[in-house]
Write a structure and sequence with these properties.
By secondary structure, the chain is of the alpha+beta class. It has eleven helices and 13 strands. The longest helix has 18 residues, at 90-107. The protein is globular.
Length: 429
């Protein structure tokens, strides 16, 4: 591997105190190490690389027209973080995105973010916990929030005129119980991989690179069933035991993706063309209450059979919902307050769901599980997709009896970039 001589090298030029090295930031039981760490001494470059045989089929290219982690086949794990910008200098913000681009390209190939130091008196440039591991289909997706453009009525970086009309804080929906510690953010990083340590390593090193320019606001890990445990690659199930993500645009259809996921020319500022809007909702599930609910009630709540995932009154999981079909009692087979019926609407509002379950131990206030769904969805225009869907669900979805929306954020996920460019280049130029 060629020596990395870009601006990342400057990160370790200054002497770092032991207190700085040990400084960490944690939200909701999730910690991210911000400082340098002297873990395990110095590793050789050969040890940090996986062989081409080992990594074949496990690398998702970082560079491209679109960012990875959106239409990529969903990996087993996610490490999602929201950050706040701490610098007031536009030049430093641009440098951060350039440094992140260089590092992300290396990380997705299973490489360290810089040459591992040979000087034992300096911290290694890479934290080392992914040494010897494969790339595990790692994708790193970057997004910018509304507050990057305007915060406290201040045009922070001269970007106010570039803020898209769609990139505004989500409205407050009925029954929202949002916790400030799980909402908003100037920037986001979504790291997805088939190995959680690989995903964590990526986020840890990107936040380390951001030191002095951005700070962690909140973080959340998530999981799905692993590919090893589900060789048939069926629709994953949420913690209520039901399939989650059955109705999605076809990621193999360019037409569907252009209609529902990718921002198109004329939608708004040109800098976001080929990007997408990401809505994040941290949804707590009251699983102990759910576990005491009979199966018929559970299925009526979702509007689908638990075992097959098929709509009630139908046979196949992927059948189009028959909203007019009635049962023997003359009632709609799919109840009027069921989650499936309300989220479907007239079928025109489609979003690309990419949700993960989470479990953060025990809710100390109630003594119950702190577990639920990290709901991630991508779309071309939130005002025409997620927001009308959520308005219907918030008003009369029977599932609301068993869940609570505790966190919320919206980000514009930047277009991809090519080698020699950097993520965010279209925004800052």
């Amino acid at each position: 591997m060629k020596k990395n001589t870009n601006s990342l090298d400057a990160l370790n030029e200054k002497k770092v105190s032991r207190r700085d090295i040990l400084k960490t930031a944690g939200i909701g039981g999730v910690g991210v190490i911000l400082g340098a760490s002297g873990l395990g001494g110095v590793l050789s470059i050969n040890e940090s690389k996986a062989s081409s045989h080992e990594t074949k089929g496990e690398i998702v290219p970082f560079y491209g027209k679109h960012q990875g982690g959106i239409t990529t086949n969903t990996q087993n794990h996610v490490y999602f973080v929201s950050l706040d910008i701490s610098t007031s200098k536009r030049t430093e913000l641009v440098k951060l995105f350039k440094d992140w681009t260089t590092a992300a390209a290396l990380l997705t190939e299973g490489k360290p973010v810089g040459e591992l130091e040979s000087n034992e008196f300096l911290p290694p440039k890479d934290t080392g916990e992914a040494a010897g591991l494969s790339p595990a289909n790692l994708t790193i997706t970057f997004g910018v929030g509304p507050s990057l453009f305007v915060k406290d009525n201040q045009d922070r970086f001269g970007l106010k005129h570039k803020q898209p009309k769609e990139l505004v804080d989500l409205p407050k929906f009925p029954l929202d119980a949002l916790d400030e510690s799980w909402t908003g953010g100037d920037l986001c990083i979504q790291a997805c991989a088939d190995d959680l340590q690989v995903a964590f390593h990526a986020v840890r090193n990107l936040i380390r690179i951001a030191r002095g320019k951005a700070t962690l606001r909140w973080a959340q890990t998530g999981f799905q069933r692993t590919k090893q445990s589900d060789p048939k690659n069926e629709t994953p199930r949420n913690l209520f035991g039901f399939k989650d993500g059955t109705v999605n645009p076809d990621v193999n259809s360019e037409n569907q993706l252009n209609n529902h996921v990718w921002v198109q020319p004329g939608d708004g500022p040109d800098w976001l063309v080929n990007g997408s809007y990401l809505v994040v909702r941290r949804i707590q599930m009251f699983i102990e209450v759910w576990d005491r609910t009979n199966l018929r009630e559970q299925e009526n709540t979702f509007g689908r059979y638990r075992e097959s995932g098929a709509p009630l009154g139908q046979k196949d999981e992927f059948e189009t919902l028959d909203l007019e079909k009635k049962n023997e009692q003359g009632q709609f087979s799919i109840p009027v307050d069921s989650h499936a019926r309300l989220s479907h609407g007239d079928g025109s509002e489609k979003i690309l769901r990419r949700a993960y379950s989470y479990s953060d131990g025990m809710d100390v206030k109630t003594g119950s599980f702190d577990a639920g769904l990290l709901f991630l969805c991508f779309q071309r225009a939130p005002s025409k997709q997620f927001i009308p869907i959520q308005n219907r669900l918030a008003k009369m979805d029977k599932l609301n009896e068993y869940i609570s929306h505790r966190g919320s954020a919206i980000f514009a996920c930047l277009p991809g970039t090519k080698q020699g460019g950097f993520i965010g280049e279209t925004l800052f130029n």
